[in-house]
Fold:
Amino acid sequence: MEDITEAALDLRCPTRAQALSVLQSGDDVLLDVVAAAGRVRRAFFANRVKLNYLVNMKSGLCGEDCGYCSQRRGSEAGVLKYTWLTPEVVAEEAERAARRGAKRVCLVASGRGPSDRDLQRVAGTVASIRASRPELEICVCLGLLAPGQAARLKSAGVDAYNHNLNTGEAHYGRICSTHTFSDRVGTVRSAAEAGLSPCSGVIVGMGETDAQLVEVAFSLRDLEPESVPVNFLMPFPGTPLAGMNELTPAKCLRALAMFRFVFPDVEVRIAGGREMHLRSLQPLGLHIANSIFLGDYLTSEGAPAGDDLQMIRDAGFVVEDAGQGTLPPHRQTVMPALRRRGPGTRRPANA
Ligand code: SF4
Structure:
């Protein structure tokens, strides 16, 4: 643990063998693993927890066949099915989330990817949110992006784009047949190239090997995401992965620790499946990850927000303020100050 911790504190990538050894460590050293990852988390994120809030703008009705997804084609999971929420409804949801301390709203729509009309809708929704909550970070997740679409989202005022790689490239074909791992990589790259903050993560527990989980962590590292959601499979009845339940709380903590070591100074978020799989060990997860979702998920209900806020306080953490940067200073883009001197002002020019 000492070598991998020192490497992370120096922002050096662990070797694949070191990452694998974290996943394969025993329960007898679980608290050592949590403590080591916790040192890294504290070094870059102190005791802050960033809260994120999901809004499912369009639910179900997807033509893709992602095996983990209860919104996929042919799903018999009985999820809510509706088409686009209006900008006003989404803005109300964002307002509710901001009042509970959420710093980022994640606006998600099911489907392979957005049409031009969808992008117009999203632009209107972003404007509605910005009108009352300009400080909120807005991340959108609309599937695969065609050329030029990321730039349109950037001009609409979107801050970040989420598109998960989900699982290792070698395992991807067993999870989905309607698009490829490289399609996903391409969308994450195009979002970053357009200036959107790339958010991309995984779903743990889909039958992948430990080596494949390490593989996807390193694939993600190549894409330089600024946030990495770590989901734990919720194997809904009515989906192909129903009944696959190979996770334990300890296994989830080891996976989170491995992602922390690979992404020492990047937002690592405990995402879907937190309540189901970490169960009573959720507070230990906060010692590794610096970000969680508050409230409900896309198709499933989460814990009451008040309970999660209590857990954060009980574990000795504080909710990150809207005015605080999430990433450590060396990762933040320093924007030049807006001009407040020279022509058009009463102050002399800087010359
Ligand atoms: S993950 Fe997205 S693209 Fe895949 S089936 Fe679900 S909604 Fe469709």
